[in-house]
Amino acid sequence: PVMGKIADENCDEVILTDEDPYDEDPYAIVKMVAKDMKRTPGVIMDRREAIRGALARAKSGDAVLITGKGTDPNICGPRGTKTPWSDADIVREELEKLKAKTV
């Protein structure tokens, strides 16, 4: 909940997304993070879609802050599942797609 409150107080726009739910309900986690936020955040549960959306909305001079995963190489899901993941790689891929659309 603290991260949601900090984001709400310091960011122009907040998008909450899925990140390492393990065996917890990812929607319940997002709801808990949003609990102390004064504004209603955007919610995009697909992490790639959330990153794409944030990058697409950004204007010149904006900063996009993607938190939660850091350099963790996997998204950890139910029953010990691990999906290989890199926020940095996803950002690079999505920026390339956005650049290709504007050229």
Automatic annotation (TrEMBL):
Any Pfam family: Mur_ligase_C
Top-rank taxon, per record: Bacteria
GO MF annotation list: acid-amino acid ligase activity
Residues annotated as domain Mur ligase C-terminal: 3-70
Annotated protein name in UniProt: UDP-N-acetylmuramyl-tripeptide synthetase
Organism: Candidatus Kaiserbacteria bacterium GW2011_GWB1_52_6
Organism placement in taxonomy: Bacteria, Candidatus Kaiseribacteriota
